[in-house]
Amino acid sequence: MTTRKDGRTPDQLRPVTIERGWSEQAEGSALISFGKTKVLCTASFTPGVPRWLTGKGKGWVTAEYAMLPRATNERSGRESVKGKIGGRTHEISRLIGRSLRAVVDMKALGENTIVIDCDVLQADGGTRTAAITGAYVALVDAMEWARGKGHIGKNSVPLIDSVSAVSVGIIDGEPMLDLAYVEDVRAETDMNVVVTGRGLFVEVQGTAEGAPFDRAELDALLDLATNGARELGGLQTEALGDA
Amino acid sequence: MTTRKDGRTPDQLRPVTIERGWSEQAEGSALISFGKTKVLCTASFTPGVPRWLTGKGKGWVTAEYAMLPRATNERSGRESVKGKIGGRTHEISRLIGRSLRAVVDMKALGENTIVIDCDVLQADGGTRTAAITGAYVALVDAMEWARGKGHIGKNSVPLIDSVSAVSVGIIDGEPMLDLAYVEDVRAETDMNVVVTGRGLFVEVQGTAEGAPFDRAELDALLDLATNGARELGGLQTEALGDA
Amino acid sequence: MTTRKDGRTPDQLRPVTIERGWSEQAEGSALISFGKTKVLCTASFTPGVPRWLTGKGKGWVTAEYAMLPRATNERSGRESVKGKIGGRTHEISRLIGRSLRAVVDMKALGENTIVIDCDVLQADGGTRTAAITGAYVALVDAMEWARGKGHIGKNSVPLIDSVSAVSVGIIDGEPMLDLAYVEDVRAETDMNVVVTGRGLFVEVQGTAEGAPFDRAELDALLDLATNGARELGGLQTEALGDA
Amino acid sequence: MTTRKDGRTPDQLRPVTIERGWSEQAEGSALISFGKTKVLCTASFTPGVPRWLTGKGKGWVTAEYAMLPRATNERSGRESVKGKIGGRTHEISRLIGRSLRAVVDMKALGENTIVIDCDVLQADGGTRTAAITGAYVALVDAMEWARGKGHIGKNSVPLIDSVSAVSVGIIDGEPMLDLAYVEDVRAETDMNVVVTGRGLFVEVQGTAEGAPFDRAELDALLDLATNGARELGGLQTEALGDA
Amino acid sequence: MTTRKDGRTPDQLRPVTIERGWSEQAEGSALISFGKTKVLCTASFTPGVPRWLTGKGKGWVTAEYAMLPRATNERSGRESVKGKIGGRTHEISRLIGRSLRAVVDMKALGENTIVIDCDVLQADGGTRTAAITGAYVALVDAMEWARGKGHIGKNSVPLIDSVSAVSVGIIDGEPMLDLAYVEDVRAETDMNVVVTGRGLFVEVQGTAEGAPFDRAELDALLDLATNGARELGGLQTEALGDA
Amino acid sequence: MTTRKDGRTPDQLRPVTIERGWSEQAEGSALISFGKTKVLCTASFTPGVPRWLTGKGKGWVTAEYAMLPRATNERSGRESVKGKIGGRTHEISRLIGRSLRAVVDMKALGENTIVIDCDVLQADGGTRTAAITGAYVALVDAMEWARGKGHIGKNSVPLIDSVSAVSVGIIDGEPMLDLAYVEDVRAETDMNVVVTGRGLFVEVQGTAEGAPFDRAELDALLDLATNGARELGGLQTEALGDA
């Protein structure tokens, strides 16, 4: 079996840590690491919903993703200084938002809004998958906070499943789990998979960066991802403890 | 078998037309329709590459997607007036660019740039897949134009495959091909698949808008999409005739 | 008499076509061609007016003009990507809006808003005059649509006249009608004239691009424009048929 | 004969003053008043031309117009704060630039750039016409400054004519010269006319704000404007004295 | 004692003039000069407050500062054209606003808003201190205007003190008052001090542009500034006369 | 002696921690805490200088400050999403840059650029002073890194002093050191003081938020700040160890 640059086997995650409640300000938060990738996820709860949703008896969950300028090996300019948000940032923010909404029952949430912020403090590949995995933990805590404050009813169950995400890719013809940056840039195909705790798919985003891929390769990647996500789900449960 | 609102079977494309060379200004162009969805695709060829690529002996292909304000049933504000591009526009522009680059040999293209513009004149679902499918036709013509002008060598083969795209989705539990707008809003799962003429995948982007999906559903969608893309490939070939 | 590059006499319009109802989404629409210049004009009707007009018993008509990036011989960057609208675009949008408002009785329109979008699909000179001429056709249909829906009363007459526009210019000392792009760039003086069906002026915008012009030249240009506009008015009537 | 609110006859200018050399920083400047309208015009000379003109042996003249937020009776927000320039500002800046370029021989100017800034300190109608009239004075001085510094040759004659501008309009059916703000808002038709010292037209921009106008009205307005501009030309000559 | 380039002693202000009521449009205004530095200050009064203050029985005073592009020796681009406000502009606007609010009793002002605009027509150092000093005069007049109109009660005393500002700096080791531009660029330390009529500090902003400064230098600068501000306060009183 | 809400004496700093080298990507970094305030400071070294400095044999140091949206008790919108940077952000970025440049010998740095990024992960008052204090540590490490790589000569001494910063303020008439957020909002006067290791002032920025302050109060604040900064200097030395 191939050994990867950092000593992992192809189907092995990097060391994952989840510091739940890292922020003393947010209703829910987690500082998550996938190896050297570190993402601070906060969940901000506010009663009420945006105007377009008012009076429908439903809540709203949305997300914003960003990277600190020196999260990466070379400093990149701030989007606030450029005065506009890049396509990649938009794309990932939307992905995180959709992934979380997929496990939320908006009626049970009631007319409340949760904004998830995922800020990458250090980047080494897999920032969007770490963000989704950490954001779920922050989301759970924000919901528990809201329940404690009476914004969510005692018997409401706004979370219908858990959710985590992992990247997979094909490098030198071999499918691998949870790519670090040096692997990501070499991958022929790169896929991000978002999976619920029950093992269902929320998002499957596969891209041929180099050579297009066939059905067999796609299947192998989906297998790897499903297993990785199951493992991440276990770590989320552990981090959340009795929540 | 279920009959769809517009009379199609679940595995049937809408009527597709490709008006090659619609624009008298661009080096390559196509006005493509997937049912009521109409996208004007132009390919603009310029010798030379952006500064960051200069001197590497490679070309560049990029794409921009936009919608006319009244392409849709309700008018939406212009992004130029808002002063910023929305996340959806960014996401689709990037998807089109990646899809086309996947079938271009940048070395064979040489230090030349092709910008693809896909402007949706009328929208009824599937605008991104129509855009990719039409853009390929425009791209072929721009390359032939460039060959004629001597910008691309006689023996260079910059196109290594063809590419088309189609949407698939699950509606009321049933997988369906090429969703019209009314179907798209009802779909539990929505997937855009970009496939080469040889049947390889370039992009697989599946999203659970409603309920998450399982592996069997994913497989059924991929089967539908592969067949639909094969059919679109045939229509591209026909439109291109002897090019 | 001078023969122009495209075979026209100095006082001759290019072939003009008006495809009424081109868009299946808008309340009114027309795809108009002045030679190779093609502009898609849509009219979007919405009940209600902007806040600053509310409660005054008057309607509002406004217009936005834009060009597809590859409408022209060389691709120009999108204004949405630049994040701002250029002076020329602003100027033309305002001209179209004023021209249409000049023939609308805002009280008869009632508290309703019509937004005209003129998107240049292909440009070969005279895009603003084609836009105004086509926009009038779209406007008529949007008003009829609104009457059908009961937003405009049966006996209300919101349109008090028709309106069309044409460019004229002096080339090599000779006044000419409806300049194509190659003529426009050579013109010493360039004038856009907006005329109502009754032959009154709504806008007269003459600019000396090269040598300033005297009163006699100005008079000759106005004569040409008045005749050209009369002819365009006839084509509008024909396109509208029984509307 | 009608007497106007401020005591003028229909064909009378407001009191016009030109303080040449108001700015101690600019190469040329003038603070011009048309009644209460006050515009500070500066001309900034720099050797060299924008990149797109380099090496063609020609100069460049351009203009920017703006209004202080409290130039008007009600404060309006700053365009810098809004982050974008409005259509009206764009339109007027372009008009001023074209008007001045019409009297400049770019070859005689050589590869030099002059930027005209017209900032309205107080507004009471006619700001664009005052701006053009004052800008010409600033332009003359900037050219003389440049000649003194050797940037323009001793025998070069970059100014081929002088230029001034005035507004005219029809109020209650009567043509009037140089409209003050209270007249401007009531005018059925409003026209800005830019005329050279030799009496030729550079720009004729007539707009029916209320009722469209006929040819006889247009002729009467042009007569009034021509006379007004001749008078302004005399005042420019006087202000410039021996320049 | 050192004589400065313009003949002043180290503790001498430049000639200061205040043209009160320069603008015929604003509720209060002053054109103030500190030597060649000229700033037009207007105060715009509007009944009502921004939404976030509504119903609290308090008023609001805010300020915006800007420079005309050719106020300085070399033309600088307009912030409206760049589409964003620079850090220096932001910083000075905020300083002016805070300085004026320090002498206003917001309760006595009542639910009214005053916007101060300080536009630098010519710059030769000390533009922010001239702006604050002139803005106070405009503010007084706007308040008197409002009292006359009944927006401020007869017995309300919204102004609890007067305020002026002056710059000081250390040049070649010597503390100097009211730096002109040529002095400012050479200063090792530069301090702007805002002082009330009663001699209290509102703002002390000292910056080591060159060498850091010690406590004794800081003390000497504060002494100079306090005296300069007292003199400016006298000039304000004189300009305001019987107000 | 007054005891503060968090148990401190008026002249006591909050617990300060400096995690040097927190980032594995940047050339220098520190995660600094002043109580609950946490700022991640990175220093990015690049050979070369911006164009306007090229060829002058001098280096450049600049800084950017920002706050994560949920650093504060209530979430605030991202400046990247708003598309512009607020005045406060600009002001603080500029302050940090000036403070660091005051202790750098730009000639000894040579033609190299260091960009400091200070991102507030959690905010509880004093974010700008924590940022400056932490940024100095990051700066030292970036310079040592550059020396190791040969970008800075062995005998060059680009750092001529150290620098730290602290806030002071008057609360209920009593001067206090290092204000936490709840203190800051109540302070009548608020001052940020930047001091070098040798005890010289780089910046003194005092603002009367409530009542203006007299000279005696100013003196008391400066004494407190000088002592606080001396203590912070000791902590910096400790964190840097043998650097």
From TrEMBL, chains A, B, C, D, E, F:
<keyword id="KW-0808">Transferase</keyword>
<feature type="domain" description="Exoribonuclease phosphorolytic">
    <location>
        <begin position="12"/>
        <end position="142"/>
    </location>
</feature>
<dbReference type="InterPro" id="IPR036345">
    <property type="entry name" value="ExoRNase_PH_dom2_sf"/>
</dbReference>
<dbReference type="GO" id="GO:0016075">
    <property type="term" value="P:rRNA catabolic process"/>
</dbReference>
<dbReference type="InterPro" id="IPR027408">
    <property type="entry name" value="PNPase/RNase_PH_dom_sf"/>
</dbReference>
<dbReference type="GO" id="GO:0000049">
    <property type="term" value="F:tRNA binding"/>
</dbReference>
<dbReference type="GO" id="GO:0031125">
    <property type="term" value="P:rRNA 3'-end processing"/>
</dbReference>
<feature type="binding site">
    <location>
        <begin position="126"/>
        <end position="128"/>
    </location>
    <ligand>
        <name>phosphate</name>
    </ligand>
</feature>
<protein>
    <recommendedName>
        <fullName>Ribonuclease PH</fullName>
        <ecNumber>2.7.7.56</ecNumber>
    </recommendedName>
</protein>
<comment type="similarity">
    <text>Belongs to the RNase PH family.</text>
</comment>
<dbReference type="Pfam" id="PF01138">
    <property type="entry name" value="RNase_PH"/>
</dbReference>
<comment type="subunit">
    <text>Homohexameric ring arranged as a trimer of dimers.</text>
</comment>
<dbReference type="InterPro" id="IPR050080">
    <property type="entry name" value="RNase_PH"/>
</dbReference>
<keyword id="KW-0548">Nucleotidyltransferase</keyword>
<dbReference type="InterPro" id="IPR020568">
    <property type="entry name" value="Ribosomal_Su5_D2-typ_SF"/>
</dbReference>
<keyword id="KW-0694">RNA-binding</keyword>
<feature type="binding site">
    <location>
        <position position="88"/>
    </location>
    <ligand>
        <name>phosphate</name>
    </ligand>
</feature>
<keyword id="KW-0820">tRNA-binding</keyword>
<dbReference type="InterPro" id="IPR015847">
    <property type="entry name" value="ExoRNase_PH_dom2"/>
</dbReference>
<comment type="function">
    <text>Phosphorolytic 3'-5' exoribonuclease that plays an important role in tRNA 3'-end maturation. Removes nucleotide residues following the 3'-CCA terminus of tRNAs; can also add nucleotides to the ends of RNA molecules by using nucleoside diphosphates as substrates, but this may not be physiologically important. Probably plays a role in initiation of 16S rRNA degradation (leading to ribosome degradation) during starvation.</text>
</comment>
<dbReference type="InterPro" id="IPR002381">
    <property type="entry name" value="RNase_PH_bac-type"/>
</dbReference>
<dbReference type="GO" id="GO:0009022">
    <property type="term" value="F:tRNA nucleotidyltransferase activity"/>
</dbReference>
<dbReference type="Pfam" id="PF03725">
    <property type="entry name" value="RNase_PH_C"/>
</dbReference>
<keyword id="KW-0819">tRNA processing</keyword>
<dbReference type="InterPro" id="IPR001247">
    <property type="entry name" value="ExoRNase_PH_dom1"/>
</dbReference>
<dbReference type="InterPro" id="IPR018336">
    <property type="entry name" value="RNase_PH_CS"/>
</dbReference>
<dbReference type="GO" id="GO:0008033">
    <property type="term" value="P:tRNA processing"/>
</dbReference>
<keyword id="KW-0698">rRNA processing</keyword>
<feature type="domain" description="Exoribonuclease phosphorolytic">
    <location>
        <begin position="162"/>
        <end position="227"/>
    </location>
</feature>
<dbReference type="GO" id="GO:0000175">
    <property type="term" value="F:3'-5'-RNA exonuclease activity"/>
</dbReference>
